[in-house]
Amino acid sequence: MISASHSWKVYLRYRVSPIQTGFRGYSDKCGKPEKPVATPKKQKVHVNPHVGRSYKVGEVRRYSPFHYPEQSKVEWVVARLDDILNWGRKGSLWPLTFGLACCALEMMHYAGPRYDMDRYGMVFRGTPRQTDVIIVAGTVTNKMAPILRKTYDMMPEPRFVVSMGSCAIGGGYYHYTYSTVRGCNRIIPVDIYVPGCPPTAEALLYGMLLLVKKVKRMRLCQTWYRH
Length: 227
Hints:
By secondary structure, this protein is α/β, with parallel strands linked by helices.
């Protein structure tokens, strides 16, 4: 037979204390552990990668909006078509010289063998109908403004504008002159600004490389498909 003292020792050994109930999750009623409550899973919301999201340092920015798992074949084809067209555009930018002042000398230096813009597929053309980029280098006067606009309208789409020098950006030294346009962006839309008085040929090269990066992220076909 089991003595009363032995039963009491067994009870003291296996009993559940209030401290154990709080920390180990035991129930006060039956002494069995409670089942954990399952948390509902959050549904993934697919949005445009450029809207409502902050990118970490070193993270690659995806320039295509069709990167979610449920994308259709048509969306994938349209995104890849944009990649192919942008690859061709960024490797064959043909600029048009529109030199108006001393900044045009640095633009000529940029075309020389020291910087060699031909290695990037950039070749100066003499007609706006065969160019992709117009480089406005120098002071734009009121008399030259309609010629600049007409030249820009003759360029085929897609077309880009590089504003080179302080005079082309905001009037520069002649900002308060009655015959000067205070920035060529009042006449044509500008994509890249190259500040300086005058900027060096290396600065123009850096601006053109930024334009190449912008062309790489164009989404003309995707925008057409979504609208």
